[in-house]
Design goal:
The complex is a heterotrimer of chains A (about 130), B (about 200) and C (about 100). With about 200 residues, chain B is α/β, with parallel strands linked by helices. Chain B is about 35% helix and about 30% strand. Chain B is built from seven helices and 15 strands. Chain B has a 15-stranded parallel beta sheet that branches. The longest helix of chain B has 19 residues. Chain C has one domain. Chain C is about 0% helix and about 60% strand. In chain C, the strands form two sheets. In chain C, strands 2, 4, 6, 8, 9, 11, 12, 14 and 15 form a nine-stranded parallel beta sheet that branches. Classes of the chains: A mainly beta (about 130), B alpha/beta (about 200), C mainly beta (about 100). Chains A and B meet through strand 15 and strand 16 of A and strand 5, strand 8, strand 12, strand 14 and strand 15 of B. Strand 16 of chain A pairs antiparallel with strand 15 of chain B, so a sheet runs across the interface.
């Protein structure tokens, strides 16, 4: 029932068992329960359910991943990687949350400043700027 | 085993911290840190160091890489510029990180396998080029075509089929072969038809 | 309930295949294969061949429709393409250009 409710809220749903090879773009939310191979660029929120599998570069407002996502993520809002999710790719977003139990491998880009006092300290080279 | 080291608020440590036990940092630390237990960077903590521990918990600010043998936890308010690697990583909403984040097995597998796959894919064309050079004396490909213009059309036409596995040779051979007259003929005809229709 | 919905404002370019239902309120270009029903709602646009179970079309379809069941072209539908189905209805107000092939 919960899924049905969420489905009706989302503008677009790729249902479980559905396979899509191609691009998805436009205005509105997208819920992925099936498999998508191709890039996604939407003005709306993207949710990848536990059954969902994306091999896509993704651009959306917020991105919530409980399934598998292979590709780079660009979010205008929050990126949330839930327990059980598997995300391989670089993430750029306003902020990123990773739940314990999620698998993640990728670069995280976020715009923020470290405290000014820290800049005065020497010590370790800033690892985040390597590579 | 319950020895806990505390770098209190206002304390500054420059240098290497290494040893058994847990470490709580509420002050400033500059230099590398490696302990067997848990490292907690408190809200007021400012760290410019690579942190290695069983568990690494950050509530303050860190410039440096984090390595957790067991886990890494970034609480709300944490700010980290550096890479994070641990079997389990939790980034709470409100925590900020910029760097490479890798969960799972201890070796930085995903990162390297990705780049390895990419670099493995790149050299692939090279072997394809090499056989072409080997065939060169036999089938007279690209280099010879450039020099004697006349025999080109005939010579590569035959070996093109033989040397099919070498892409460069095939493509190069195909151009002066049969397709050449066909394509212009089609184009001329097609254009004429379109113009007439339009 | 694993219905696939392409919402208004969303465009999919590519092949979509599913064992379940598909509802199109937005745009699909490419190919659509559904073992179950396909609904193209008013405002929805499909530029693709459709292979499906029962199909209800109230939007625009450019492409051939092959259904294992019935095809209903409803009021407001605009279909350009051939339809192959066991049964077909073309409602008053539906536009249709193409041939019909019914398995008898």
């Amino acid at each position: 029932m919960a899924r049905a409710q969420r489905s009706s809220q989302s503008n677009a749903v790729i249902g479980a068992g559905a396979k899509l090879r191609g691009r998805v773009h436009g205005d509105g939310d997208l819920l992925v329960e099936g498999a998508v191979e191709g890039d996604v660029a939407i003005r709306g929120d993207l949710t990848v359910e536990a059954t969902g599998r994306l091999q896509s570069n993704v651009e959306a407002d917020s991105v919530t991943v409980a399934g598998t996502l292979e590709g780079d993520v660009t979010a205008r809002g929050v990126v949330h990687v839930r327990a059980g999710a598997k995300l391989t790719g670089d993430v750029r977003g306003e902020s990123l949350a990773i739940d314990e139990g999620a698998e993640f491998a990728g670069r995280v880009e976020a715009d923020f400043e470290l405290p000014a006092e820290l800049a005065e300290l020497g010590g370790a080279r800033a690892g985040g700027r390597r590579r | 085993m319950s020895n806990v080291t505390v770098i209190g608020e206002g304390a500054v440590v420059r240098g290497r911290i290494q040893g058994e036990g847990d470490l709580a940092i509420a002050g400033r630390v500059e230099g590398d840190v490696e302990v067997s237990g848990e490292i907690v960077v408190e809200v007021k903590g400012l760290v410019a160091a690579n942190l290695t521990g069983q568990r690494v918990v950050v509530r303050g600010a860190v410039r440096g890489d984090l390595v957790g043998a067991e886990s890494i936890e970034l609480d709300a308010g944490a700010r980290v510029v550096g890479d994070a690697r641990a079997p389990r990583i939790r980034v709470a909403p409100g925590a900020l990180i910029r760097g490479f984040v890798t969960t799972g097995p201890r070796e930085p597998g995903a990162t390297k396998s990705r780049t390895a796959a990419a670099s493995a894919a790149r050299p692939a064309p090279k072997p394809a080029v090499a056989p072409k050079k080997v065939e060169a004396p036999q089938s007279a490909p690209a280099a010879k075509k450039a020099e004697p213009p006349k025999p080109v059309a005939k010579i590569p036409a035959k070996p093109a089929a033989k040397s099919a596995p070498a892409r460069g040779a095939t493509i190069a051979g195909a151009r002066p072969g049969p397709p050449a007259p066909v394509v212009p003929a089609l184009r001329k005809g097609a254009k004429a038809v379109h113009k007439k229709r339009a | 309930m694993a219905t696939t919905v392409i919402g208004a404002g969303i465009t999919i370019e590519g092949d979509l295949s599913t064992d379940d239902d598909v509802v199109v309120q937005g745009t699909l270009r490419g190919k659509l294969t559904a073992r179950d029903g396909v609904v193209v709602e008013a405002g929805g646009s499909v530029e693709a061949d459709i292979a499906s179970g029962p199909a209800q079309i109230a939007g625009a379809v450019t492409g051939n429709i092959t259904s294992t069941d019935r095809v209903d072209l409803q009021n407001g539908a605009k279909v350009v393409g051939n339809v192959k189905a066991t049964r077909i209805t073309i409602a008053d107000g539906a536009q249709f250009k193409g041939s019909v092939d019914m398995d008898v």
